[in-house]
Amino acid sequence: MRQIVFDVSDEAASYEAGDALGVWPRNNDQLVDEWLSVTGLNGQTPVEVGEHGLMSLRSALTERIEIAHISRDLVRFVQERTGDPKLAELLRPENKAALSNWTWGRQSIDLLAQLPVYASAHEWLRVLKRLQPRLYSISSSPKECPGEAHLTVSPVRYNFQGVPRRGVCSTYLADRSPGDRVAVYLQPSSNFRPPSESETPMIMIGPGTGIAPFRGFLQERRALGHTGPNWLFFGEQHAETDYYYRDEIEKMHADGLLTELDLAFSRDQQEKVYVQHLMRKRGAELWSWLQDGAQLYVCGSADPMAKDVDRALCDIAAEHGNLDLDEAKDYVQSLSADKRYHRDVY
Questions:
Q1: Averaged pLDDT for residues 268-289
Q2: How far, in Å, CA of 181 to CA of 7, rounded?
Q3: Where do the H-state alpha helices sit in 292-324?
Q4: Residue 319 in contact with residue 284, Cβ under 8 Å?
Q5: Residue 129 gets which letter from DSSP?
Q6: How far apart are CA 160 and CA 166, in angstroms?
Q7: What is the pLDDT of residues 54-100, one digit of tens each?
Q8: Which residues of 95-110 are buried (b: 16+ CB within 10 A; e: fewer)?
């Protein structure tokens, strides 16, 4: 995990705890080289890129075009050019899940190395999508860190069939040097904010880098002098390497800002333990907090984590609220309707 601090003191826009920062990444030079190699194209070829005008193909591939991700349009383009029967089968409407599974871990260069397609730069630019910004929850409060916006970034690096591959934006950020300029913008989040009332209890469920906004929430409540209790469920694989912000969190717990702290390190014992298991284990207390008007927040992966958390909430409502399954689901939905159950999931 990397903590990346942006100097935003010169920015006209100020942020609030819970907001996100949009980051415009650039494709890695090695990825661009590999893409040019598998397509047989010359990086100096001039190309027109919409409102950005004329530039070299290499500049376009580095700054403007998404060349890592395999889109459905790209699979269709390759299938039409090669006549590959396996791709034709994967493109059938009923095989969406199979296509998603097949593309997982692969990048466009893996597809094109396997099934070479020779097309002009202009044909490629018609099928490839534009490079999009990535949103990261800001992990600081401007009240505690004026002029700074902190991000919590876990660089994605892995091997696909023995070949090193990397996430586009996470490694772009991880590889920056102090003083480098990065194109960013503020993305306000009107419905993901810490409680406005001082006494309101706050329950935060944030495994992995999902902890990011909650660090900002806790800083915010401390700066405002809020008296309401705060409860954090955090999970990752190993306590030794993946306990993000350990010193800060344990200090917050020791000084009482963080009233309750539940940690799930899934690979530190034989049986995997996740945040939803700890929620169930402490279901009676969690239900009591909800009865006291607690605001509940979830940040992290939509599937499966957020779905598992939702299921755990329904089970807790059923068991400790003496509700049948439908009533428990209605209760959890009512938390959302009352703006007490907030999700920032991706």
A1: 96
A2: 10
A3: 307-320
A4: no
A5: P
A6: 10
A7: 999 999 999 999 999 999 999 999 999 999 999 999 999 999 999 99
A8: eeeebeebbeebbbbb
Backbone angles phi, psi at 163, to 5 degrees: -105, 130
Length of the chain: 346
Angle between helices 307-320 and 283-291 (to 10 degrees): 80
Average pLDDT over residues 215-233: 98
> How far is residue 81's CA from residue 5's CA, in Å, rounded to a whole number?
45
Burial class of residue 198 in the structure, from the number of CB atoms within 10 Å of its CB (0-12 exposed, 13-18 middle, 19+ buried):
exposed
Give residue for tokens 């068991």: 319
pTM over 0.90: yes
Neighbouring CB atoms inside 10 A of 46's CB total 11
Reply yes or no: is the peptide bond before residue 155 cis, omega within 30 of 0.
no
Decide the pairing of beta strands 230-236 and 202-205. parallel
